[in-house]
Write a structure and sequence with these properties.
Helix content: over 70%
Largest sheet: none
Mean pLDDT: 87
Number of strands: 0
Shape: rod-shaped
Distance between the termini: 52 Å
Radius of gyration: 23 Å
Order of helices and strands: HHHH
Length: about 80
């Protein structure tokens, strides 16, 4: 039963290779996207931190994204 599932009447190599390539490709895309997102979050947090206190307060109050990025950035630092 298990051997039939793995071999899939001779098509198992192609099926499992396709699954492997798909999973590997998705993992690579996820890793690169996550890495790029973290890079942009660090750059954004750096720019926000360079603002004056009044400007920083205005940006954080007006931007939901800015407050989320800064809260996640402060947790990792």
């Amino acid at each position: 039963m298990t051997q039939n599932f793995i071999t899939m009447n001779g098509y198992g190599l192609f099926v499992w290779l396709s699954f492997s390539i798909t999973i590997l490709t998705c993992a690579i895309v996820y890793y690169k996207t996550h890495k790029t997102l973290k890079k942009y979050e660090r750059e954004f947090a750096k720019e926000i931190n360079e603002l004056s206190v009044e400007q920083k307060k205005i940006v954080i109050e007006n931007s939901k994204v800015a407050s989320q990025v800064l809260s996640s950035y402060s947790k990792t630092v």
